[in-house]
Fold each of these.
Amino acid sequence: MLLSEQAYQKIDRELAKYPGDQRQSAIMAALGIAQVEKGWVSAEVIEDVAEYIGVPPIAVQEVATFYNMFDVRPVGRIKVTVCTNLPCALRGGEQAAEVVQRKLGVSLGETTPDGMFTVVEGECMGACGDAPVMLVNNRHMCVRMSEERLDAMLDSLKAEAAKLQGESA
C-alpha cells in the first residue's frame, strides 16, 4: 500500500457513493486524493489505486493521462496553470503566461530549480468571461489576471513557498 490509511479511508467514502459494479466511477476522486497526498500520480500510485478500487490499471491510467489536472510527472509544490485557450488568449492569457514565466524564470512545462513552482499551460477552465484565468494547485482559480494582480498573486505564492521551504528544512 502506497497511500496513508487516511487516504484509503477517503477513497472508501468515494467508493460508497457508487453501486458495487460501478467502482470505476470513483477513479477521478481516488486519483485526486492520491495526488494531494503524493504531489503527483506515479505509475506505482496508478497501479495501487487500480488494485484498491478493483479495476484494471489501464482504466486508471486512461483517466490520469486524459485530464490535465492529474500530474503523471513530478511537479513543484505550487503548480500554476495558465489558460491560453482562445477566449483567454484574446483577453491577455498569453501575455499573462509570459509574465508568470518571466517572473518565475521558467518556461511552460518547467519547474523552478528549487522545486517550488511549476508553470503549465491549461485547457479551458470554464470562466471565459473572467479571462485571463489561472489555477493554482488545481484548487484555487484566479480570474481577471492583470499584471498588477499577477504581481500580487506571485508575491503571495513566493511567500507561501518560503514558508514551505522553512517547514521542510
Amino acid sequence: MDKLELVMRNTEEIVTVDELKGLLEKPSRPRAYVGYETSGKVHLGHMLTANKLLDLQRAGFDVVVLLADLHAFLNEKGTLEEVRQIADYNRDCFMALGLDPERTEFVYGTDYQLQPDFMLKILQMARNTSLNRARRSMDEVSRNAENPMVSQMIYPLMQAVDIADLKIDLAVGGIDQRKIHMLAREELPRLGLPAPVCLHTPLIPGLNGEKMSSSKGNNIAVDEPAQDVEKKIKSAFCPAKVVENNPVLAICKYHVFPRMEVGMTISRPEKFGGDVHYASYEQLEADFVSGAMHPMDLKKSCAECMIEILAPVREKMKV
C-alpha cells in the first residue's frame, strides 16, 4: 500500500485529494492534527481518528493531538480543573493506542488559547462570521444545540484558529467536523492564513445500531475491562446478512483489519465449517452478507480481536 492509499483508506471525504497529494510530495514533513474535546472516556469513536493518525505517521506526517480542555469548558463539560484532569487521562490512552512518541506532539488548549494573539484572531474571525454560520458549524458538536450559549458559538471559531496557530497542514476529524473545517478553509485565508487540507473519517454506529453516544452507553471505552468488551460485543446489534448500521461489522472494518496485519480468523466448530481466515474486510463482509458467516461467530471473534488490540491500553491504565 503506497502512502496515498494508506492515508485515504477508511475515509469518508478528503478536501481535496489533489492538495493531499501535494502535502505528500513536500520535502519537509507535513503536520496533521486531531482535536479531542476532553469531556470523558476515550472510546471506539475517538479511536477511529487515532487509527488514522497512525496511518498518517506511517505515511510521513508529524502528528499533533490537541487536548481541547478549553473547548470542553466552553461546551459545558466541566470546570477547567475537571476537564484538565480528563485531558491528562486522555493523553495516556492515546499514547497506549500506539502513537509514535517521537512524532506525536500533545498540546493542551489552555496552554495557548488564552494568549492575546489567539484571542485577536478569534475576534477578527467573529467580525467575518454570521451567527447563522457559527451556529451551523457547531450544531453537530455542541451540547444544548437547541438553545446554545454564546460560548458554544465561539467554539467553531476557536477550532479554526487552532489549525492556524498549530501550523497544521492536514486537519483530521470525523465527518461531523466537516462544517467547522469548511469554515476554517473559507475564513482563515481572509486573515492572511493558509487553508488546511481536511480529512474526514466515517462515524461508526453505536452498539445498538443507533448514533454512538456516551450518554446512551452504546460504546466501548478503550480502557474497558476485557470481560466488559466481550459482553458488550456479544450483545451488540448484528442482524444476519445486514451491513447498514451494523456495529460489529464496523468494528471489524475500522478497528480490527487496520491493526491486525495478518487479517482476522473466525473460530468455529468443525460441524459449522471450521475456522476461516480473512485477509481483507471485503471478504469477511461478503461471507456475512451471503449468510456463510453466522452473527454469533462474528461477534465472538470480533470480541477476541478487540480484547487483544486494546490490551496495551488496559495495561497502561491498569484496568
